[in-house]
Structures are given as C-alpha cells and as structure tokens.
Amino acid sequence: MPATRPDSWHIGVILVALILALPVLVVFAHVFLPTTEVWQHLQATVLSDYVRNSLLLMLGVGAGVLLIGVPTAWLVSLCEFPGRRIFEWALLLPLAFPAYIIAYTYTGILDFPGPVQAQLREWFGWGYGDYWFPEIRSLGGAILMLSLVLYPYVYLLSRAAFLEQSVCVLEVSRTLGAGPWGGFRRVALPLARPAIITGLSLALMETLADYGTVQYFGIPTFTTGIFRTWFGLGDPGAAAQLAAILMSFVFILILLERLSRRKARFHHTSSRYSRLPRYQLQGWKRLGAFGVCLLPVLLGFILPSWQLGFWSYLTFERWFHPEFFTLVWNSLSLAAIAAVLAVVLALFMAYAKRLRPGLGVALAVRVAGMGYAIPGTVIAVGVMLPFAFIDNVVDDWMRAQFDISTGLILSGTLVALVFAYCVRFLAVSLNTVEAALTKIKPSMDDAARSLGMSPSQVLYKIHLPIMRGSVLTALLLVFVDVLKELPATLILRPFNFNTLAVRAFELASDERLADSASAALAIVLVGIIPVILLSRTIATSRPGHANP
Amino acid sequence: MSAAPTLELEIDHVDIGYHGKTVVHNVTLGLRKGVIGCLLGPSGCGKTTLLRAIAGFEGLARGTIKLDGEAVSQPGRTLAPERRQVGMVFQDFALFPHLSVADNIAFGIQRWPQAKRRERVKELLALVGLPDYARRYPHALSGGQQQRIALARALAPRPRLLLLDEPFSSMDVELREGLAREVRAILKHEQITALLVTHDQIEAFAIADRIAVMHEGRILQWDNAYNLYHRPAARFVADFIGQGELLSGTVLNAHEVGTELGVITGHIPAGCGPGDAVDVLVRPDDIAPDPSSTIIGEVSAKAFRGAAFLYTLRLPSGQPILLLARSHENYALGERIGIRPGFNHLVVFAADAPQPASMSKAPRAFSES
Q1: Touching check for B41 and chain A: CB below 8 Å?
Q2: A71-85 tens-digit pLDDT
Q3: From A462, which residue of chain B is nearest by alpha-carbon distance?
C-alpha cells in the first residue's frame, strides 16, 4: 500500500501543535540569544538565590508530599480503621486550595494580629517582642503550605498503585511472615515506586510553577524573578532567559518521571484481583492511623476553609455588591471560553490521531500537550513576546499603508489570555478525551462509515454522544484549572480586567486578607468539583471492582 | 477477464500490503448479483484485509476493485467507505450503544422520508424475527439478537453488496450453523449480493453458494462446497477442508495407482505417467471396515462422534489413516482390524508438488451459479 499522503487532518494537527508550541519555542530560543546587561546583573546578584531557593523549595516540598501522601495512601487502601471510607476521598480535598490562597489564609491565622498569637498573648500576658513565634512568611512556611495542598498528587497515584497490586503478591508476603509494616516496606512500597515518583514529579512541577505563595512570602525564586526582571527591570529578554532555565528544571523532572515509568511495566506479574484483605488495626494503632489521616485534611482543608468562611462572613457587606459579581462573571466566562476551546482542540487532535495513526500526528499531539508541565509564568512570557511583536508589525504596517493605528490586537487582550490557557491546559482535556476515545472500538467508526457517514459526521453522531460524560469532565477540569490560574492571568489580562484569582491576590498583597476571603472561597468551592469527580473515578476504577 | 455486466463485485489482480509487506497477493474474484460468496481460510490468511479493502477501509497496492462496473479502488485512489453503498456486519457487531435498536437500524437511512424509514425499520425487524425490540438498547440484547440487529442495520439502506466479517465467531459453536442458515435465508429474501469472511468451514458450507479458500494471501480455489471437499485443487485445500490423510503411491498405468491399501482404480489425470510417485487423498469415508480384508490397520486413536466413530488407524508402514465407522462398530485401542478402500474418485497430487496433477490450469475465478 502506498504511504498515505498528508491531507487536511495532518496539516491541521501539525499547524495547531506548532501554534500551541510557539510560547515554549520562543522561550527556548532565548537560550541562544546574547545576554544583556540586566542578565549580567542578575547573574552577579540574584540568580544563585533563585537557584538555591527553587532547589530548597523542591527538596522540602518533595519530602513533605512524600511524608504525607504515601503513608495516608497506604493506610486507607490496605488497613481498616474508623473513618477510613471518609478519608479515602477527604484526603483529596486540599487539592481544591490553590497554594497562594492557603498561604494568605495561614498568614492571617498565624501572624502577629492573628487569632493564634492574640490568644497566646491573652493567656500569658505577653506583649509585642516578648516571645518567639515561628515566622510563617519564610521558606519553611512556603514548604509547609505547598506540601499541604500538593500531597494529594502523591496520595492519589500511590493509592491507585497500592490498589492495583495483585492481591496474590500481598498474600504471599503475609504467608511468608511479613506483618503490615514489613509488607508495606518490602513489597507494597517498592511495587508502587513508579507511581509515587509520578505523583512526586507532578507535585514538584506545581512547586516550580507556583508564583502566588513565594511572592507573598517574599522568597526570591525563578517565577518571582521573571516578574521582577520583566516589570521591575523592564527586560523581557532576560525574563525569557530566566524562564528558559526554569523550563529546563521542568524537563529534568519530566525525564526522571519517564525513566521511572518505563520500569513500571515489568511490575505486575499477576492479574488476579479480588477484594483486598485489609489489616485490621487495633488499639493505639487505630488511633494513630486516624490521626495521621485527619491531620492533613484538617490543616489542608478544614481549618483554612473555616477561616475563609469566617472572614467572608465578617466582610459580607463589603464584598456583597455588583463589583464582586462582575469578578465572578469575568472568571466564569473566561474559564468557560477557555474550557470549550481546549476541549474542541483536544477533540480535533485526538480524533485526528485516531483517523491518521502514524508518527507525525502522534508527535504533534504530544507536543501540543506538553504545556501542562510548563509554569504559567513561562507560558505568559512566551505568549507575550511573539504577540507583542505581531501587534507592532501589524500596527506599523497599517499606519504606513492606511494611516490607521490598530493598537494591540493580540497582546493585552483576552485573546492572549485564552491562548495561554489553551497552551497550559490542553493536556488536561486531551488526556481525558483521548482516554474516552480509545475506549470506543474502531469497528464503531467503520460501521458508521459503511452506513454513509463522513469522518466528521462519525465524530458528531457516534463519538460525541458515547463519550458525553468524558467531554463534560474535560470541560470541567479545564474550567477549574483556568479559574485557579494566577501568574499567567496576572501578566496577560487586559488592563483593568480582574478575575477572582487576581483580585484575591491583589487584596492579600495589600494586607487586606479578610477582604480577599470571599474571592478565595469562591475559587475553593469551584475547586471542589474536580475533587468529587476524581474521588468518584478512583472509587470505580479498581480492577475487579463490581461496577464497570 | 471480461467485465460482465451481471457481476456485482469484481476483484481484478489485487495486491494489498502494509509497511512494505504484502498480505494479499494477486487476487482475482467475481461475484454475480444475488450470490453469497465466502472467503474461507485460517487466521492471518488475508481474508479480512481483502474484505476491508472491498469496503474501502484499506487501499490497494495493485489491481482494481469494481462495484457494479464502477472502479472504486485502484492504487492511490480509494473511494471513501461512506460513498460505496457497501453494507458491513462486523465481528463485534459494533451496534451504537447510545441509540435504540430502531435508531441503529435507521442510522444509514436518515435521508429517507420518515414514513418510508419507519416502514423499512419495521420490515427489517420482522425479517430478523425481533419485531418487538425497536425500543430496546443494544446492551439489553443477547449476542444472537445483537447480531441480527447488526444485520438489519447493514441491510436497511439496500446496499449493493453486503460484507460480513466473521459474523458468527462470538457465538456458541452449537448455534453457529443454525444462525448461518437463518442469515442465509434473510440474505436470499433480500436478494442481496454478499461476501462473508470466516475460518469455519461448517459456517461457510451453511451460508455460501461459492467459497474461496485463501491461504497466505492467495485464493487457492473458488468453488462450491462439494467440489472443495471432493475435488480439492491444492494440497492445502485438501488438508483444510474436511479430514483426510495423504497416502503415497506409484502410478501403475492410466487407470491404477499402487498404494499400501492395494491397487486403487480410477481416473489418473494427465501429467502423471507410469512409475511417477504420487500422493492419494484418503478421506475417512473412503475407508470401510471389512473383517475379511487382508489389509490390516491398528487402532491408534478413536473419537466418539455420536452417530459415528472416527478412528485413526496405523498401517504396517506406520502411515496413519482415518476411518469413519458407524458407532456400533466399536473397536479397542490397539485392535487390528481389516479395512477396505472404496473410492468414488481419486484425488491425486504429484509427490512434492503443491498443485494436484489434475489441475493443468488455475481454477476459474468467476462464479458459475
């Protein structure tokens, strides 16, 4: 059979992938550009701080998410103790909190005028400067905050891995005399290691991408450095070069994750599944397990939501007016537009991959999905540079030809913002849609084709109705991610266009913590939606589970 | 080969391959209007690939496929499946899970006026014997019911040609032959031209007017069931269709072959002279027990088939041979029994030659029915 010639599907997919890869390529290209004076200044002064702080942050958060995520996952999947069934999903709840929001909340709780220190002063009659109290706005504080909201990645993946482990392996380990602890250390943990590393690398990518927390705590890292270099020092080129270094950190993480996943294939030796026999914990062990699982939920979700709720209640009269609903409307409509676009693009890419299997399309789809690993700050820089260039070129040409100034068509408009969201979150919709599409047998397509449907009619009449649920999930996931996204929104939003995330950040930065609570709470409430979806999926996804 | 106007499907010197590997070699085949054809062969013989090429899902490397005289596939030019008016029933039925039975059947006739469409759905449901199932959904149907709905769906637009890809392979073995007869009755009622792919000869015999035996991408014989069994055109066909053993012998003269079973008389085809080494096909029903016979075989295996026993006998030379005996002729393993050959006609292959000596030219590829 002659090789299939490239047709409109090939060209379309490669075009979309190239456009979506543009920001990353632009940033990457800056590695090869000559450095400026500002860059030399950065190198001489703050660059080593950025590297050190980013590395320390990764190290600390890495340790934190492992310490919280792995033991809790093992307890809820392999042991029996009071509250286990609730903890199974409740341990995911901190995922609803963007790191910057939990950071403001804890600052409000723990700083000098906050309720904790005020109470201590009242009890002991201390005054200002009489006592030592740990400073939350520090590197250690940032590590704690990020660990509290990012551990669910490790929890989620290691739990899935523990549940997937063949019951035979675990039973063999018990017949050979391994107790709960021995079984965990010598069998379950080594088997789950690839999944744990995947979860860890996801958490570390989020750590590198974080802007709100480190900015608020005053810790100089790459993300804050990129902002400062661009908007403080006015050098986009040097900002892009910083972004390129940050991106190389991410690529190293991706590489490590891929390497560990390659080994995962050899791990499952048996496919017999049945209900896992759980270790029945007794006495103080039950209490201990309960406490270990309660603490992250309490600190990562219950306490901060209670505080946000309390603040929102206190400031009700100040925020309950049209301006707040404009914020809500801006956020929701922006997130909805981006979500629809990301899902449409994902459908197009995934369907093209189905219609035209081959290296070219598969590679293009992979490229289009890589934005998820790239920090929002980097993507914003990568969007801003080419868009501003295009705007300038168009404006100059229109002025020269027609004496009309077109101004900013792309940069500084919602177009740039929606585009950046698509770059960053296409992977979310793509993964969901691709997974659903591969579940539909190819014979469905063939049957519809032989009954007179064109390929696009097949997508519309067969695939979309069958995978309606997955498409909705993809829409929701992108929607929530966009709503939570801070740094890209901050850089790319049109002048005077505010969203909930931006407003919460601005108010908190102005030390109006209580006033920022309503916007923050709105984000958290919406953020719970994907947590519910996730907990439903994992409840039904265990091999051998009764429901298909 | 001339393009006779009565041919619904014409496959002319077709090669199909992927990634530089040819999986269908030089296939030529014609199917007249209203005839049910079958591609029969073991898995991997290229039969499904050929079927998918006829449907338009695969391109050709060489040759032409014509439907009703119109060239629909040529190298580099493949008419899209949706524009061929070729219906297809899939191995897994591929019913659309989000549509009711009626909507599934009506899927290919959405442009018809509503009244006509409803009528057609009703007619087909009655034809496949499920008149009350219009509102059900595929997941509520048994395998056999799903298959009938898949058939009704493919028939609804009155395609020029219906293709069936292993339509009974997911059914219980005991049901297959009966279902195949039912499907044949439905296809004949609709007077449709059909081509079926299967690896099961019982199915093929039950449903098809003409059968093409495929092996390693080639069609070895295109014939009716009787001829495939009694006049196999190739060693592979002799081996694949029915049971039997090849017995070596020597041509004695124009009418006789000398073998371990004695001198067998019959027509020795041209091309084999006295003294030539040949292989004679011996079917289980060519041998009968005869206590008075001097030809002795030792029972080395026996299989109870209800009405009959299938014995494997070993001749003194060690040559195995099959014997079909009535079920009250019960011999013990190791027992030595007398047998008598009773050939109606001889199937003789020149030793070490793939083609039987009787086949001086390639089988005629066009349907004669």
Answers
A1: no
A2: 999 888 888 888 888
A3: B96
